[in-house]
């Protein structure tokens, strides 16, 4: 994280606009997550310094909310919805198939950092269950075959 | 801007709308977007031009009419014809037949009257019919007239009285009388006061609030402004889940447009009343939907609940009086103001007035979002509106109320849906999730799934929830591995009651429900697992250990 980092300037501007208020922490974390894709220790320490909050508090908030990632995700991200409707409709089978096919564990990435597999909370598209999101594209009424093919297409190309 | 200007916009927009003989509404909700709704919008616009009927047919982008399983969906008015699984090719034929020749294209129609027959659309009255990105559409449909009525003809006390008369109860799950809650905040002297609209719909399998925000955001905003006027608040927050990007964008745009028309901001419609609304994003914490959790989250902290009293009505955001309402509750308010509390009180049952939105999912033929009057039975919802269980399978159970709701068996299906009946049966109204489970599911596994969710989402503050739920999950896993003992059943019951009675907030107090209700209604399945080492649904005992690394 260098000082010249443009993303840092954007972050700094937002904190200034919010007058470095401690109550803006969640908003600032949202923006930082959007800019960097995940939080590393340095980034969290920087935010805690600027907002004058203990690092433990910032880390506590960042790790509390499921949306925030504390590890760098892979180049491509697959997230399977684990809502009730998706579970009942057999998303577990799709997840296991991805795990087997790409030698990856849920919550982890492939060694080459190309692919990450996450489990997400209900995305609210329950009538189309099961849902799997591949790089922000939601695949509704998903099957093992469709999802595996889609993943192979994106990491292959 | 003056109230007359809003009424003028309403008149002009209605005239514009009447000038078109037909209106084609394309659902561009989260449900239909992944299936190419935007391409469809273009296809219809092109087709209308190609046939030269753009003068008599309006093509509009709208929210969801509720029939999510047959998307992309197109609704043609007048007549409310719904076309299912529409493709760009079909679009052309539909325009040719329905608009040009005036004969609905029968082969593509959604021929399922039962889905709508028993519904009563009050909160979702505009869903699928107006463009959520145009405030003018909402105004033309009678929007913001309740606000004008409040600001020009009613005192805050009269507004609260009207809501009390209506009998409206909180739609977030607990069912607390809304008017009473408003009066608690209104009587506080401490200022400034805040109002919070809760759209942290964290229950898996529930999407009623999302659909409402995507289809008719202004009904939420109008209800919120009225509530702020009633209690004397000047600042409001809408707390939305970040997992709902389209709902977030729709609300953001709606707030911008409402501000431009001076429906929020300073001196609203020259009434002297000031009120601002800010959007706050959640970050994936189920507990943030709890009323003290949401406050902590808005203040930028971990969303951990705190003991009550003091209630948020006395000491909420930054220690000030705060009114927290679910967005569905708020969307009811404009209708109550316009039609009167007495009118509203006649819908539903005497103790539970009005309607409730339910997300109907799982093993049911017509999944989707429905709105029904209170007091309707589960059987009507599942077998008439939902069309029953597909694939020749048998109905086994229905989970009502989200992950901390209860699993009810066939024998309970004639239960009327209202807060008291559901609680008595061991379930809860919750945020209105109805998940149908067929005979392929194992009830022990189902209880495990929901307990696992609650273990993960427990904030860890109080011991009964943090440790008790973990213990329940471990015992369930033991039973599923075939290592259960007969004593485990009574142990589960005992633990469940402790967690329910001793937890700090609603999450812990309801989290044992799936375990307790499956023990109550499906005890034989537990016994089969323990005594016979057999899973009646054939699901357990072959589960691979989740931590094992596969090569």
Stretches of chain A where pLDDT falls below 50 for ≥5 residues?
A: none
What is the assigned CATH homologous superfamily of the largest domain in chain B?
A: NADH-ubiquinone oxidoreductase 51kDa subunit
- The largest beta-sheet of chain A arranges its strands as 2-1-3-4
Instruction: For the record, give the distance between the C-alpha atoms at the N and C termini of chain B, rounded to a whole number.
Output: 68 Å
Helix content of chain A: 40-55%
Average pLDDT of chain A works out at: 91
| Largest β sheet strand count, sense and barrel closure of chain A | 4 strands, mixed
Oligomer description: heterodimer
Tally the beta strands of chain A.
Answer: 4
User: CATH topology of the largest domain in chain B, what is it called?
Assistant: Rossmann fold
CATH topology of the largest domain in chain A: Glutaredoxin
% residues in beta strands of chain B: 5-15%
Total of helices of chain A: 7
CATH superfamily of the largest domain in chain A: Glutaredoxin
Q: Tell me the major beta sheet of chain B.
A: 5 strands, mixed
Protein described:
The complex is a heterodimer of chains A (157) and B (551). With 157 residues, chain A is of the alpha+beta class. Chain A folds into two domains: 6-64, no CATH class; 76-156, Glutaredoxin. Chain A has seven helices and four strands; from the N terminus they run ααααβααβββα. Chain A has helices spanning 6-17, 25-36, 41-50, 55-64, 84-88, 91-102, 144-156, and strands at 76-81, 115-120, 132-134, 137-139. A four-stranded mixed β-sheet of chain A has the order 2-1-3-4, covered by helices on one side. The radius of gyration of chain A is 18 Å and the shape is elongated. The relative contact order of chain A is 0.12. The mean pLDDT of chain A is 91. With 551 residues, chain B is an alpha/beta fold. Chain B has four domains: 18-112, Glutaredoxin (3-Layer(aba) Sandwich), CATH 3.40.30; 142-345, NADH-ubiquinone oxidoreductase 51kDa subunit (Rossmann fold); 355-438, Ubiquitin-like (UB roll) (Roll); 443-531, NADH-ubiquinone oxidoreductase 51kDa subunit, iron-sulphur binding domain (de novo design (two linked rop proteins), Up-down Bundle), CATH 1.20.1440. Chain B has 22 helices and 13 strands. Chain B has helices at residues 3-19, 37-50, 88-100, 114-117, 135-140, 145-153, 156-166, 178-186, 208-215, 217-231, 245-260, 291-298, 327-339, 341-345, 378-385, 419-425, 443-457, 463-481, 487-502, 506-510, 513-521, 523-531, and strands at residues 22-27, 57-62, 74-77, 81-83, 194-199, 235-240, 276-281, 322-326, 355-362, 368-373, 395-400, 406-409, 433-438. In chain B, the strands form three sheets. Chain B has a five-stranded mixed β-sheet. In chain B, α11 (245-260) links the parallel β6 (235-240) and β7. The longest helix of chain B is centred in the last third of the chain and has 19 residues, at 463-481. Chain B is globular, with a radius of gyration of 24 Å. The relative contact order of chain B is 0.10. At the A-B interface, α2, α4, α5 and β4 of A face β9 and β13 of B.
């Amino acid at each position: 994280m260098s000082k010249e980092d443009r993303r840092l300037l954007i972050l700094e501007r937002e904190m200034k606009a919010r007058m470095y208020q401690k109550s803006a922490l969640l908003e600032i974390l949202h923006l930082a997550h959007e800019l960097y894709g995940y939080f590393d220790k340095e980034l969290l320490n920087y935010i805690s310094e600027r907002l004058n909050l203990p690092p433990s508090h910032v880390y506590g908030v960042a790790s509390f909310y499921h949306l925030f990632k504390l590890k760098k995700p892979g180049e491509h991200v697959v997230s399977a919805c684990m809502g009730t409707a998706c579970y009942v409709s057999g998303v577990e089978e799709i997840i296991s198939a991805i795990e087997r096919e790409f030698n990856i564990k849920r919550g982890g990435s492939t060694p080459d950092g190309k692919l990450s597999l996450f489990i997400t909370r209900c995305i609210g598209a329950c009538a189309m269950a099961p849902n799997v999101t591949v790089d922000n594209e939601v695949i509704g009424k998903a099957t093992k075959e469709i999802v595996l093919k889609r993943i192979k297409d994106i990491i292959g190309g | 801007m003056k109230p007359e200007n809003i009424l003028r916009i309403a008149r002009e927009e209605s005239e514009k709308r009447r000038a078109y003989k037909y209106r084609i509404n394309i659902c561009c909700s989260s449900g239909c977007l992944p299936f190419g709704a935007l391409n469809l919008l273009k296809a219809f616009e092109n087709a209308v031009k190609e046939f030269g009927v753009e003068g008599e047919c309006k093509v509009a982008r709208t929210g969801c009419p509720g029939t999510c399983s047959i998307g992309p969906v197109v609704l043609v008015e007048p007549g409310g014809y719904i076309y299912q699984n529409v493709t760009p090719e079909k679009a052309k034929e539909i325009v040719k037949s329905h608009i040009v020749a005036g004969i609905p294209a029968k082969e593509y129609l959604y021929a399922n009257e039962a889905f709508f027959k028993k519904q009563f659309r009050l909160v979702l009255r505009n869903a699928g019919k107006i463009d959520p990105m145009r405030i003018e559409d909402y105004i033309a449909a009678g929007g913001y007239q309740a606000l004008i009525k409040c600001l020009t003809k009613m005192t805050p006390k009269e507004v609260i009285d009207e809501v009390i008369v209506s009998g409206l109860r909180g739609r977030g799950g607990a069912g607390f009388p809304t008017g009473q809650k408003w009066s608690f905040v209104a009587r506080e002297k401490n200022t400034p006061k805040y109002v919070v609209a809760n759209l942290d719909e964290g229950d898996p399998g529930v999407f009623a609030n999302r659909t409402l925000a995507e289809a008719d955001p202004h009904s939420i905003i109008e209800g919120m402004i009225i509530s702020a006027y009633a209690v004397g608040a000047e600042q409001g927050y809408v707390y939305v889940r970040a997992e709902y990007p389209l709902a977030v964008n729709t609300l953001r745009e709606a707030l911008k447009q409402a501000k431009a028309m001076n429906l929020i901001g300073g001196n609203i419609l020259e009434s002297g009343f000031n009120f601002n609304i800010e959007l706050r994003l959640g970050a994936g914490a189920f507990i943030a939907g709890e009323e003290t959790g949401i406050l902590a989250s808005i203040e930028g902290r971990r969303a951990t609940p705190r003991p009550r009293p003091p209630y948020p009505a006395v000491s909420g955001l930054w220690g000030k009086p705060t009114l927290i309402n679910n967005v569905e509750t708020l969307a009811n308010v404009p209708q109550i103001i316009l039609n009167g509390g007495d009118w509203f009180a006649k819908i539903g049952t005497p103790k539970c007035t009005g309607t409730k939105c339910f997300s109907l999912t799982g093993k049911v033929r017509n999944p989707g979002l429905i709105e029904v009057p209170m007091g309707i039975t589960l059987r009507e919802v599942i077998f008439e509106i939902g069309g029953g269980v597909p694939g020749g399978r048998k109905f086994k159970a229905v989970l009502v109320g989200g992950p901390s709701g209860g699993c009810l068996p066939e024998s309970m299906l004639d239960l009327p849906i209202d807060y008291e009946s559901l609680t008595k049966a061991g379930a809860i109204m919750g945020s209105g999730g109805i998940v149908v489970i067929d005979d392929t599911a194992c009830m022990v596994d189902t209880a495990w799934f929901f307990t696992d969710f609650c273990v993960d989402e427990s904030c860890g503050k109080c011991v009964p929830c943090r440790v008790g739920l973990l213990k329940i999950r471990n015992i369930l896993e033991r039973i599923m591995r075939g290592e259960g003992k007969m004593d485990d059943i009574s142990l589960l019951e005992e633990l469940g009651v402790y967690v329910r009675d001793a937890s700090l907030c609603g999450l812990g107090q309801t989290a044992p429900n799936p375990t307790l209700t499956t023990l109550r209604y499906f005890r034989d399945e537990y016994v089969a697992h323990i005594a016979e080492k057999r899973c009646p649904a054939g699901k357990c005992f072959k589960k691979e250990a989740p931590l094992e690394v596969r090569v």
